[in-house]
User: Fold these one by one.
Assistant:
Number 1:
Amino acid sequence: MAKTRALLLSAGATPARAAWHLALLLAALTVTIVILASLPASAKDAPPPLAPVDSAVGDTILLEGKVVYVDFWASWCPPCRHSFPWMKDLGRSYAAKGLQIVTINLDKDRAAAEKFLGEINAGLPVIFDPDGSLAKRFHVEAMPTSFLYGRDGVLRERYQGFRAEDTTAVDSLIEVLLNEEVRK
């Protein structure tokens, strides 16, 4: 601020005018910070559209026009061990109606991930992301983190962590999305 005041004074502004300009600058900065802080988290760090997952799957037909549940997980994550049976049930219940579940593993050691998958008999599509590049694009900060997309590929909900008591609400939203018309 002292440099800005000195610059204003060297430009011929009076001390009172320089102080007024500094106050105006501080007010504008404060308003900007308040606006940014009041934005919902989804507006500040929204994950990318479904395209990165689509390209990682390698088969665009797999996800096109479907409700997609993307789940980031790791073998060392205790809640992930509980979320897989639920996701497997989701797949059985809603796959014929258009739900596609894609899981993304973040283990650096693929053997650990494979062991985990064998122990829980996952039966779900898995993308391995050992360098975390997809996780970074999706701003994943907790395990598991999941994203629910409508048939139009638009993100509808983001979930951090897994709690069995929240599954009924997620199931309900999936049913709503499965019954939606595709937005154009």
Number 2:
Amino acid sequence: MYYLLLTLLVLDALLLAAVVLLQAGQGGGLASLGGGTTDLVVGGRQAANLLTRLSWWCGGIFLFLSLLLSIASARRGLGSSEVQDRLRQAAPAPAQSAPLPIQSAPAATPGTTTPAGTPVPTAPPKATTPAPQAPKKPAQ
């Protein structure tokens, strides 16, 4: 059933492509930006002909077959291929890491060394600046 739906979908896609390419251009869309009113001279909107109807039918059948194929593949269990299964088996399991502590370690004091042996840089002393005060109102 799966391969029958897939074959029908491919045949419908080829037929849809051929029908769309066989249709004559209407001169609409982006072609009208630079052409002026030439589409009125050649002919305005034409009645739906056989190719237009056939393209709508092929498009609808394509969507319907795609829906059926997705349902059939879900029932068949085609979630992954053999290659994906082999890659999952060959890949090493991710290492379990220890949970992170809730509180962080205390910061190192200047002048000491870190566990890696690099010295902790000393920070320059902070300059104290007076807090800004609101301007005083002049006495009247």
Number 3:
Amino acid sequence: MTVDEIDDLLTSAPVGPTKPATVISEGDLATLLDLTPRRVRELRQEGVIPGAGRARYVRDEAVRAYVQWLRSLVTGKAPNLDAEIKAEKLRTERERADKLAAQNAAARRELVPAAEVEGAWSLILRRVRAEMLAVPSRLGTRLPHLSPRDLSEIDLEIRDALGEAADGG
């Protein structure tokens, strides 16, 4: 046998029937890997497990890819895993600190519930409105030279001003 013939044998396709790829569903792969179907979808989206169509996977390729990914986690060679974990821990700690700061501020009454603020302002504004609407009658008793028409004009101006203030204008 010549060198060329040996090379042809080594590079040619195997003789005999080849084993077809086994395509399985997402649920079957989840069961095989002891995961939930949702986690299988997440791993596919993250590029860990290759897909073979909608919710379909080539069993051997998917298992092999998953095992390689697990090995990379164990050996610490997962891409950006440490950075992602640190970022998530930092975000969680900031959220906890913000929550604690808000609770402390509320305990010191530096923060007041919105309903209390709304109620207090509502009371103040009702008092201001009542006092403003009483101005024409008080002026009528203090300034007797004002005619009823003058007092009516003052009343109208006050009501217009209150209406504009209520409309945000």
Number 4:
Amino acid sequence: MTLSRGTHKILLLAIVMVPAIYLFSAGAWADSHAVQELITWMPFILKGFGINLIISVLAMILGTVLGIILGLLELSPSALIRKPAFFVMNVFRNTPWLVILFIAMFIFPFEFTWNGKIIDIPNWIPAT
């Protein structure tokens, strides 16, 4: 007997929600220290989630634009432009993303001086 896709979703929802509804109605979650801690930390969790979304969207936009530019440079008839673009593309293609992230975090500055004032750069900008 095979279940349809919609039946799988309903069954999964029931498996997750029935115990949750029971515990909530029995008041078991109201006394839980873990739930109280979760409520306390929820603003920080949501802020981190929002920053994660911003980083993801900016990285996709930046990656798309730079990828198009790099692809167009590789199509250049001039070897002086095509070969460095090919080299850069292969370096990024064959390097694990975690290594690239660590390199970016150490290469890009976290602050710089402008007219004698120190300007801090948020950590999420080099990570993007």
